[in-house]
Amino acid sequence: MGRAWERLVRSIKTTLKATPNARAPIEVLYMVLLEAENIVNSRPLTHVSVDTNDPVALTPNHFLLESASEQPPPGRFDHADFCTRKQ
């Protein structure tokens, strides 16, 4: 019944499952949750137009940060920092 919010919960769960192990330091978990929060809060709430002259689509970040947060998610990572399920 709650397809939209269930999909958001699944996005957070998928992000948490991608962490290297169950005993990750609190800083790693904090950074993963911050990135997941940024991903969830940058989803559009209104129609996304293909016309560049139209205003930017409204997102939850507009209410939280008073901007669309065009910057990348927190943290800078190298190729070696990416988690894989093969570890």
Automatic annotation (TrEMBL):
Domain of life: Eukaryota
Annotated segments matching region Disordered: 65-87
Basic and acidic residues composition bias: residue spans: 76-87
Protein name: Uncharacterized protein
Organism: Eumeta variegata (Bagworm moth)
